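Notes from the pairing session

We agreed to fold both candidates in a single pass and log them together. This is the raw record for the first candidate, unedited. Please don't reformat it; downstream parsing expects exactly this layout.

Candidate A
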Amino acid sequence: MHPLNKAIGAVRRRNVSLAVAVGAAFLMGACTPSDVGAPVPPENSLAVTASAYNSMRAQTNDNPTLTAWGDTLEPGMRAIAVSRDLIPLGLGHGAVVRIEGLEGEYVVRDKMASRWEKKIDIYMGNDVAAARQWGKRDLTIYWAAE
């Protein structure tokens, strides 16, 4: 993610001024003067319910590593499944998502049954304990506007 996107995210989350956020980015060496003139891609955000899932037959089906879009999941992948109502919003197969409270970016690799709305499932490989510890949370996700 571009350092200025992080600065703007800080503005949105912490209600600080853009000048302070960009100044902090410069001081930390996260961006250069040439970054200031660079266009910052617009970003969408949405409050969703997030749970976690594993590659277990009891949680999926007879082929627990195969997604509804045909991708093969492997432990360690940063992948999510989305409820189908999120797909028309730009969260289709391959969309890159940031999840509040988690580091890094996740890729949409799976879609959920049509009964779910405003929901994501975070793939946690075979680590059932981590998925249980995550539980179910209400949070915000972010992705590039198209």
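Candidate B (folded immediately after A)
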Amino acid sequence: MGASGNYITDESMVDNWPTAVDTTEEFATTAVVIATDKITVANDIDTGTEIQFSSTGVVPAPLVTGAIYYAINIDATHIQVATTPVNAAAGTDIDLTDVGSGTHTLDVGDGSSTAERQAVIDRAEQLIESLTKDYFYAKAFVVYRDGNGCDWLPLGLQPDILTVTEITVYGIELETTWYTYDVNDVYLDPESATGGIDDPELLFRTSHKLGLFSKGFGNIKITGTYGWTTCPPAIEQAAIILCRYENDETLYTKYEDVVSDKLDDAAYSRGTKRFMTGVHEADNLIRNYKRLKPILGAC
């Protein structure tokens, strides 16, 4: 299991990682025995070898993702974990208190670990999201909004709405056929009622003269997804650039490297001012995806 994210879906998309650890292997929670503090491994790991752990869930407690530990060789397929080389040599192991969750990864050696590469990918993607105020994948959301007494309710979300899966008004779930949505709002679907005079939707609408979204404070709960269905190539490339830059800062142009731009006799100094990420090549790709907060209207 390699490092991955939402835009960099495989660590191999970044081609300049530092030298990797000697070996990487995965193991399940069933490989951890808390009674003996032993972990079943696929490789014969010498006592005192540097090891690191990461997981798709949570690493076994009290281990910490990405922290450096040292192996205690029990036999060819079992290890215990020590905090220092001295403790490893003395056989003083860490008392494991649970097996963790998910699929675990064990990196063996002192090179670039899965956890370290994952941290680089996470920083790059989080920086892009904080600058653009957007998610370039489908991200789940739950929001509570004040009812406005109208048949239309703006959500005020910066990423575009992709799906709305549930709306409740004062805890009462609305039928999905009663409403529709666009990228910013949810609203009553005026053509959805198909029953006769006893149609429950028609009765509900008739009894709520002030609109589907009754006035109140935080009384409307909306669940769904927002963001993008597919990551734009420019965002993917920007994430790759930011990872490659963190691995080697000489590869790209930093704004602090640009001292001034000259036009005739005038000089326009930029100095150390940061423009977005501060990496020229990444900023050129990201700037067109910056979002402005939508203006909320009245019904």
